[in-house]
Amino acid sequence: MLRRIFDIVLAIILLIISLPFLLIASLIIYLETRNSPIFIQERGLTLEKDRFKIIKLRTLKISLNSITHANEQDIFLKPTLQSNITPFAKWLRKTGLDELPQFLNVIKGDMSIIGPRPLMLDDLRTIQKISPDLYQRRGKLKNKPGISGLWQLFGNRNEGLIGMLALESLYEKVATPILDLKLILYTSTVVLQAKNSDSIFFTPRSNGIRVETFIDNSSNLKVILNMPEGIAKFILEKVKKTEGKYTIEIPSDWWYVSDSYKNTNQGKKEIKFLQIEKKSPIKKNQ
């Protein structure tokens, strides 16, 4: 209840502050596209859960109905659409300011300020087809979709669905009002520096301080999560209090989740984090 009140109050304040910018941006978008500057699209955590009509500033000159989704890579990286983006729309996407109208979704109760990323229905259908186990696991997330979040800020799109699900599940373990405030403040720096992780204009982020997680199997992969020290320490300390340190296991040649994460503090003890039935590995698309 307290979080809901916080979301509503902050969304109203930010919406009022951003109203002049939204009016100017809407005029520019209309002049560039000759189309409505407001774009409405149905999204959700899954096809069955938390579906709603998201409100955004229009950035594409074409209809999203013409976008194809053949594999997992199409969900997270869409560079082929760059020719359909105007210079102003590119800046909107890089800053994330095209998301500002979603404060209306927060006020309505569809979303929170911080939470897992709502996905396009075509993306969700692709996930359901190629990774049914991970699709079902995402359906168990309890938090409402968020404008910003742990994956939106620090996720690596090249890690695909498993990278998203790992961070979204981690957020559910450590979510507190203090962490939400830290993520909101960090979101403002992303906006000011135009470093939003966009599917069309994706560039890997780089920060001076990193949190490293290591796997212990034949692929010998090191996964690096770019994250400021203050946020990283807050998350790791909260997890450590109940479960000790753990590693995120993401094999290098196919998308697959191990059913446990090795505890580095307590020898061979293992903790259950993302438990998914083992099946034949799904090859990563090259």
Brief write-up:
The chain has 286 residues and is α+β, with helices and mostly antiparallel strands. It has helices at residues 2-33, 73-76, 87-95, 102-108, 121-130, 132-138, 150-154, 160-174, 177-193, 229-243; strands at residues 38-44, 52-57, 112-114, 119-120, 146-148, 210-214, 222-226, 254-255, 261-262, 270-271, 282-283. The protein contains 10 helices and 11 strands.
* Relative strand content: 5-15%
How helix-rich are the residues, as a percent range? Answer: 40-55%
Q: How many strand units? A: 11
- Spatial gap, N to C terminus: 45 Å
Number of helices: 10
Could you spell the SSE succession in H and E letters?
HEEHHHEEHHEHHHEEHEEEE
Class per helix and strand makeup: alpha+beta
- What's the Cα radius of gyration? 19 Å
Instruction: Indicate how many domains the architecture comprises.
Output: 1
Give unreliable regions as ranges.
207-223, 245-286
State the shape.
globular
Q: Biggest β-sheet: count, sense, barrel?
A: 3 strands, antiparallel
Main sheet: strand order: 2-1-4
Average pLDDT figure:
77
